[in-house]
């Protein structure tokens, strides 16, 4: 792509300042994005990336923040000053000239409206389409982002889709009106590598066809290297570095940028050494789970989602489970915990079958196997303080009572990299990555034998993800904790997993020692997964490292 930076920018942010109460969250941020360009905004959770994105659409007020300085202008001829636009003009601009894909799709999709209704509403508002015409355009938008069976998806509700499919719906909605500027806040976080590659290709094709500008917010530096023309690095609300993408990875000038690059997972760095003689803690035998068709009045046949799955997990072992969005990974995890009742098969915990136990008999076993869910906001009660949230399992199982809960909360938060004083706050006061750490702290509260981690680090920036996976390794060494680690990030799976199981269309198609599966994959689907890993992922710098400059660039 040939950029012409001397032309007027399509979106210009100058000296932007954002505050939440008395806390200044963003300090004098400036950047420009030109037509047809992708600018990546990277940094740790809480660095101000998402606050910046919300401010461009003037949604920051809804989150308790305010713009207290600076300018945001849209357009190359007679640019519009967004910070002073009246409400009616903002409504006309959002979703039409500027669209946004949010980090957590379940907080953005209406849970009581069908997918088609939500998409058609946008098309009616901004394109004046109605009836069959709007439905046809909505179906075409879903098809554009490679959602299988788009006609059926239009009639489904958000909770009926996997996390990855929900994210693709959000992308389809954002692109439906062909905006001038797309703000993509972690748009591929919930996607497997094959779908991610397709979405990134789609964004590039749309830019070529429409000249669309993209503000791409992500913690995945491999994606940044693949898609971004320029990068802005943020730390604690300030811009510390800005450069063209190849130059940034070749010679980062700021120490914090170097830290982010060093923490980025890289495929091929090696897996933990295989365990020998580990006692089997979890055994799944011929497990199948189907949805629908269970009622006597149902006219539809059950839809199999998990098909005859068998696997084992040893004490102190991590088994990585990888596969496409919608392949059944999360359904398998919930079936193992009996949050969803399996159709057939056996789940045994430490030799005791738990699939046939009554709820009362199952309760003691639940303390031994805990789950960290994919969507942190959906699994945290917004009316409960963080102190009560992270200690609730311990309270329910009689592990912590009264004043013990405060001390336990402080210890758990510290262990996952949050300040102890965060215990007095509420979920909405944290970034997406911080909320995921809260969920991990909650799972640890009853000292379980097994943690089922469903995309547990997918919402975290690379440095915090590294801290969490290092914490998991420490827990395995000190307490013999076991993990069923579900992720679409194969490089992270490689780093933490002793063995890997590959899932495709509800079945386990390949399993084995991590290094062996990744070095010599046997199944065609495993080979396709590995081929889709971003090729532009930054490599660890070798030789004499570039000199890191502490000053702001």
TrEMBL record:
Belongs to the ABC transporter superfamily. Glutathione importer (TC 3.A.1.5.11) family. The lineage of its organism: Bacteria, Pseudomonadati, Pseudomonadota, Alphaproteobacteria, Rhodobacterales. It is a peripheral membrane protein. CDD domains: ABC_NikE_OppD_transporters. The complex is composed of two ATP-binding proteins (GsiA), two transmembrane proteins (GsiC and GsiD) and a solute-binding protein (GsiB). SMART domains: AAA. The keyword Nucleotide-binding applies. Residues 11-261, 282-530 form the ABC transporter domain. Its EC number is 7.4.2.10. The keyword Cytoplasm does not apply. It is found in: Cell inner membrane. Part of the ABC transporter complex GsiABCD involved in glutathione import. Responsible for energy coupling to the transport system. This is Glutathione import ATP-binding protein GsiA. PROSITE patterns: ABC_TRANSPORTER_1, ABC_TRANSPORTER_2. One of its GO terms (molecular function) is ATP hydrolysis activity.
């Amino acid at each position: 792509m040939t950029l012409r930076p001397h032309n007027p920018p399509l979106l210009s942010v100058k000296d932007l300042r954002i505050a939440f109460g008395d806390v200044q969250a963003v300090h004098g941020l400036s950047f420009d994005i030109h037509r047809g360009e992708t600018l990546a905004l990277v940094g740790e959770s809480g660095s101000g990336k998402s606050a910046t994105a919300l401010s461009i659409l003037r949604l920051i007020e809804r989150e308790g923040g305010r713009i207290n300085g600076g300018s945001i202008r849209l357009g190359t001829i007679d640019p519009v000053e967004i910070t002073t636009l009246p409400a009616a003009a903002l409504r006309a601009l959002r979703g039409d000239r500027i669209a946004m894909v949010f980090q957590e799709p379940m907080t953005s999709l209406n849970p009581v409206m069908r997918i088609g209704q939500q998409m058609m509403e946008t098309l009616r508002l901004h394109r004046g389409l109605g009836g069959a015409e709007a439905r046809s355009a909505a179906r075409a938008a879903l098809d554009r982002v490679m959602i299988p069976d788009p006609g059926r998806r239009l009639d489904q509700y958000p909770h009926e889709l996997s996390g990855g499919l929900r994210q693709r719906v959000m992308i389809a909605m954002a692109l439906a009106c062909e905006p001038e500027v797309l703000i993509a806040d972690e748009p591929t976080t919930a996607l497997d590598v094959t779908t991610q590659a397709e979405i990134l290709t789609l964004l590039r094709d749309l830019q070529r066809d429409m000249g669309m500008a993209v503000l791409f917010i992500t913690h995945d530096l491999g994606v940044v290297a693949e898609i971004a023309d320029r990068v802005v690095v943020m730390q604690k609300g300030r811009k510390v570095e800005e450069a063209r993408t190849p130059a940034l990875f070749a010679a980062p000038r700021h120490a914090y940028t170097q830290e982010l690059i060093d923490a980025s997972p890289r495929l091929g760095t090696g897996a933990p050494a295989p365990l020998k003689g580990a006692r089997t803690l979890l055994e799944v035998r011929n497990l199948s789970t189907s949805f629908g068709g269970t009622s006597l009045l149902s006219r539809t046949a059950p839809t199999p989602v998990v098909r005859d799955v068998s696997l084992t997990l040893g004490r102190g072992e991590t088994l990585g489970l990888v596969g496409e969005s919608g392949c059944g990974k999360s359904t398998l995890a919930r079936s193992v915990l009996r949050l969803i009742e399996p159709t057939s098969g056996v789940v045994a915990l430490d030799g005791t079958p738990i699939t046939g136990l009554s709820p009362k008999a199952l309760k003691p076993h639940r303390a031994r196997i805990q789950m960290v869910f994919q969507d942190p906001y959906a699994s945290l009660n917004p009316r409960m303080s963080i102190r009560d949230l992270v200690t609730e399992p311990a309270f329910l199982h009689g592990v912590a009572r009264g004043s013990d809960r405060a001390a336990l909360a402080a210890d758990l938060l510290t262990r996952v990299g949050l300040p102890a004083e965060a215990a007095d706050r509420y979920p909405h006061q944290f970034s997406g990555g911080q909320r995921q750490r809260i969920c991990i702290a909650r799972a640890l509260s009853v000292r379980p034998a097994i943690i089922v981690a469903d995309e547990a680090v997918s919402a975290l920036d690379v440095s915090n993800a590294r801290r969490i996976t290092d914490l998991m390794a420490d827990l395995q060494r000190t307490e013999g904790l076991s993990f069923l680690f579900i992720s679409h990030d194969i490089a992270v799976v490689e780093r933490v997993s002793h063995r890997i199981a590959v899932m495709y269309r509800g079945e386990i198609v390949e399993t084995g020692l991590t290094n062996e599966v990744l070095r010599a994959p046997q199944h065609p689907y495993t080979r396709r997964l590995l081929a889709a890993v971003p090729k532009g992922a930054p490599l660890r710098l070798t030789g004499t490292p570039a000199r890191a400059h502490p000053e702001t660039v």
